[in-house]
Design brief:
alpha+beta; Glutaredoxin; FAD-bd; 3-(3-hydroxyphenyl)propionate hydroxylase; oxidoreductase
């Protein structure tokens, strides 16, 4: 894999470029806008996704511009607390707070800065992609008309060609690529080019989103507030020192609302400068295909989710991480596992978001009264309360036989994508941990205390205590008391040998 063209320079597109460039793959990023979108959109990532930002090289900087979330409060229409689910803001099993609130322009600035540090990436803004061609592509996907030169040294051939228009001049150019990544959002041009259609998962609501900077701190509880009022469901959260977000569900047919009236219960006499006021339609949709030939869909181009569990951006970054190491590996069989692993995972998170949204905002008056009783009961049951706070990320599952790309009926365990020749070496995937993300405690590596992923590197790794049960794959690390002074990693291993993929997912163990 030598050259990748990425369509879209939002967080998913830029993250994909960084992950690939760090693995030695040249990337060209094309975006129709000349500057990053300046207004906030995504506001939350969990500790699993923060590990991806760590791999990208911006995690520590991100921690300085974000704030740990305390959890979730469910409020009734009078803003009385019905239930509270607290998260520990200290370091969790993945090395970071479990919930992290932020302002998206801050994250985009960090990603663009990191991108500029890499020599094998070029970003062209003001470039609108109009066509992609490849051998075997449907006729509708083939770019028509004259194509000028790319102006980019060494971007002549490849399995695909991408045609784009320079918006300022009107010049039409084309570039060759081994792979094309469609990271161009919910209204994806690339999705249309490959003929993918969106499956409607039956959720659609109109919401008003208001971002503002207050004159002084509101003194609010430091988690997400969800107003479970069928008359006006709402969400409130603090993003920065004086930055806040409000989201209000709009009623059917409602065209105008008085923002000042909506904000008054939260603000009192405190002033606010509205940074953004935008109406959004929250939808649940997933593309029926995520690939055609050398063209792949990632992020909102492949899936769209309601925001109720805060996994929209995280899902796209998981796509990028899953695909980047497989592209770098060079085995074409691995590329067949991208959609097979990521699509069920994304669908599961979307369905969870739908259920959470209905539970927190749906129903009429009688249902709302029942919900208050049920939520109050959950609040008092430690086991159920713990379940509500558990990570929303399900394990990856990919059933296969006789080859990495052949799918069979879903398996309960194992069957994850493996390295070329890995099964032949006697290290087949499987085990009760297969498909789950390994934890990331602090370890002592080469005389320094570091997070585990820094010791693992961007490769396969085998963790074991004493003697490995199988021939080690990739970097072999014996987990000793000296390496693992806290004992967290040894307690997780429980004497087993665990083989980890480059994305820290357990292949065997």
């Amino acid at each position: 894999m030598d050259r990748v063209v990425i369509v879209g320079a939002g967080p998913v597109g830029v993250a994909s470029a960084i992950l690939l460039a760090q693995r030695g793959i040249r990337c060209l990023v094309l975006d129709r806008y000349e500057e990053p979108y300046p207004l906030p959109r995504a506001v939350h990532v969990d500790d699993e996704v923060l590990r991806i930002l760590q791999e990208i090289g911006v995690a520590d900087e991100f921690l300085r511009v974000s704030r740990p979330g305390l959890g979730l409060r469910l409020l009734d229409g009078r803003h009385r607390v019905m239930a509270e689910f607290r998260r520990d803001t200290a370091t969790g099993p993945h090395g970071y707070p479990q919930a992290n609130m932020f302002d998206q322009p801050d994250l985009e600035r960090l990603l663009r800065t990191r991108l500029a540090e890499l020599d094998n990436v070029e970003l062209i803004g003001g470039a609108e992609v109009t066509g992609v061609t490849w051998d075997g592509a449907p006729p509708g996907a083939r770019a028509q008309g004259g194509e000028g030169g790319s102006g980019i040294e060494g971007w002549g051939g490849g399995a695909a060609r991408v045609r784009y228009t320079v918006i300022r001049s009107g010049d039409v150019r084309s570039v060759g690529a081994d792979v094309v990544l469609g990271c161009d959002g919910a209204n994806s041009t690339v999705r249309g080019i490959i003929g993918a259609r969106l499956e409607d998962l039956r959720f659609e609501e109109r919401w008003l989103v208001v971002d503002g900077v207050c004159d002084r701190d509101l003194g609010a509880w430091g988690g997400v507030h969800q107003v479970c009022d069928p008359r006006r469901a709402a969400t409130f959260m603090q993003l920065g020192a004086l930055r806040y977000r409000w989201e209000f569900r709009l009623r059917p047919g409602e065209s105008t609302v008085d923002v000042d009236t909506l904000l008054t219960p939260w603000l009192g006499t405190i002033g606010v400068r509205v940074v953004r006021r935008a109406e959004y339609t929250f939808r649940a949709r997933i593309a029926d295909r995520w690939r055609a030939g050398p063209v792949f869909l990632l992020g909102d181009a492949a899936h769209q989710t309601p925001p109720f569990i805060g996994q929209g951006l995280g899902a796209g970054l998981r796509d990028a991480y899953n695909l980047a190491w497989k592209l770098a590996d060079g085995d074409p069989r691995l590329l067949a596992t991208y959609e097979a692993e990521r699509k069920p995972h994304a669908r599961a998170q979307i369905r969870l978001a739908i259920v959470a949204g209905w539970a927190m905002t749906g129903g009429q008056d009688r249902a709302a009264a029942v919900r208050r009783v049920v939520l109050g009961a959950i609040w008092r049951v430690p086991g159920l309360k713990g379940l509500a706070l558990r990570s929303t990320s399900p394990p990856l599952r990919l059933a296969r036989r006789r080859g990495l790309g052949r799918r069979t009926r879903p398996a309960r365990r194992g069957g994850l994508a493996g390295q070329a020749g890995l099964a032949d070496s006697g290290v087949a995937g499987g085990g009760r941990r297969a498909g789950r993300l390994a934890p990331q405690p602090l370890v002592v590596w080469e005389g320094r205390t570091v997070r585990l992923d820094e010791a693992l590197g961007d490769r396969w790794a085998t963790l074991f205590c004493g003697r490995p049960a199988v021939a080690p794959v990739g970097r072999a690390i014996e987990v000793t008391p000296e390496l693992d002074p806290s004992g967290r990693l040894r307690r997780w291993l429980r004497g087993r040998t665990v083989v980890l993929r480059p994305d820290r997912v357990v292949h065997r163990g």
